[in-house]
Amino acid sequence: MFRSRILLLLTVALPLQACVVGPNYAPPAPAPLGVPGSYATSAPAAQPADLSAWWTSFNDPLLTSIVDRARSGNLDIAQAVARLRQAREALVQAGAGRLPTVSGSAGYNRAVLDNVGNRDNLSLGADASYQVDLFGGVTRGIEASRATYAASGFDLATVQTSIAAEAARNYILARQAQANLAIARNSLGIQDDNLEISGFRVQAGLVSSLDVEQSRAQRAQTAATIPSLEQNYQAAVNRLGVLTGQAPGALRAELEATAPIPAGPDAIAVGIPADTLRQRPDVRAAERQLAAATAQIGVAKAKLYPALNISGSIGTAAASFGGLASVVTGSLFAGLSQLIFDGGRTRSQVRSQEAAAEGAFANYKQVVLTSLEDVENALTALRSARERQAQFAIALDAANNSAILSRSQYRAGLTDITTLNTNESALLSAQNGLSNAKADRATALVQLYLALGGGWDSNIVPQAPQAPTP
Question: Treating both helix axes as pointing N-terminal to C-terminal, what angle do 61-73 and 137-203 enclose, rounded to 10 degrees?
Fold first, then answer.
């Protein structure tokens, strides 16, 4: 009978939860966010291709392998996964507010009496309490936790995309350092020959020792660049090791063999700005944070309205297990409470949450505009690198022809050492310029892929994995 009364009261109370205070969230339209219809920088406006594994477009198996290892072993990603699991548990905890709390108790004692002997006493009991969500405080809390959980999933995707881009950039830096080292060492060999020839010409009395000193200076300047290039190479290799969750030198053996700077595709379709907003995980995380902040307004407002609490208990006691069901007692209580005065604290909390929602909107708009800025800058950087690469290719061809002619003429005594050194310097500069332009173009491609939100599947909301077995 007592149990049926509790069930009846809960059946009546549950429908009362239909009233939910606070604003209902709706995603902002593109216009208030300042989203234009197209990008200012010219680019292919076709629908972007699948960007979830953009690093494979460079057709470099080692690059693909390193990025994949970084995405699976990076410790920043592991921390983001842990935060996502925490957010999932917070959602579970928020959902528990819709259910009653039930606790049980059991007891046993023995009384030792001189005149009647020992007397046993057994007891069983249960207590239940439930707060009816009359004005949607719990509902809004669940809504906020669900949005926060989704935002944490997008934060994880943001870390994954950033790590993939950082791994690719450092791989390009390593290959760039290797290319520049090869250029410097080749130039050093040529300058050794020039120094030897100038020495022979001094001994033959054809030129003064000034030729030797100028050749020595030219060689030393080239040799001085090699330690810095070796340092840049080692730094990139060490960074790649840490990005993959390993010791700094873990990938040294794999990268030791020289390989060209990855080129990547000639062009990338970027679509329209609205495509970027759907693709970029940081934009979607900011939108979910705005939704969570909006829901928190309802959580704060619900505290201004009455609260209905239902509690009950049931218990029994007997001298033996067989008699526990003979007499069962219970109680049921329903209480309505209303905030009357708290010095304005609760209303201040509502205003505080409204201010937090305004800040979340400003942050969302800032993230949107920053993402569009990233795309514009990446497009500009890519165009600049392409133009410089084309011009340095022309400069290299001309400088190489000039250096060959100067070497022949110096050996024949038809030109002086200053002209030879000038042409050798121009050749070295053109070689380095072309190598750096290739690396800048590859880096700009990575930058553009990252700006477009590549590196994850934007069709799904990342979910927390199950906790690992200890």
Answer: 140
Nearest CA to 336 among 131, 101, 99, 128?
131
Cβ–Cβ < 8 Å for 357, 28: no
When pLDDT is cut at 50, 70 and 90, the band that residue 203 belongs to is: confident
Helical pair 137-203 and 210-243, crossing angle rounded to 10 deg: 160
Closest CA to 56 of 386, 445, 464: 445
Put residue 216 in one of left, alpha, beta given phi > 0 → left and psi -120 to 50 → alpha. Answer: alpha
For residue 197 the two structure tokens come to 């020839």
Contact of 310 with 333, CB cutoff 8 Å: yes
Whether this prediction's pTM lies above 0.85 is answered by yes
Cα(295)–Cα(22) distance, integer angstroms:
7
Q: What spatial distance separates the first Cα and last Cα of the chain, rounded to whole Å?
A: 46
Taking only the tens place, the pLDDT of each residue in 263-294 is 999 888 888 888 888 899 999 999 999 999 99
pLDDT at position 9 is 47
Residues 6+ apart with CB under 8 A from 369: 33, 34
Is 329 in contact with 158 (CB distance < 8 Å)? no
Cβ proximity of 386 and 182 under 8 Å: no
Query: Would you say 262 and 58 are in contact if contact means Cβ atoms under 8 Å apart?
Result: yes
Picking from 202-216, 381-395, 431-445, which range would have the lowest pLDDT averaged per residue? Answer: 202-216
Residue 25: C-alpha distances to residues 17, 66, 274, 290, 315 (Å): 19, 42, 20, 9, 46
DSSP secondary structure letter of residue 22: S
- Contact partners, residue 434, CB within 8 Å, separation at least 6: 389, 392, 393, 395, 396
Let me know: does 101 contact 86? Beta carbons within 8 Å: no
Amino acid letter, 460: I
CA distance 194 to 132: 92
Please enumerate in sequence order all residues whose Cβ is within 8 A of that of 274, keeping only pairs 6 or more positions apart, or say none.
30, 35
Closest CA to 10 of 107, 116, 131, 109: 131
Weakest mean pLDDT among 32-36, 112-116, 241-245, 377-381:
112-116
- 294: closest CA among 148, 459, 461? 148
**Alpha helix stretches (DSSP H) within 308-458:** 345-411, 417-451
Instruction: Report d(CA 412, CA 315) in Å as an integer.
Output: 115
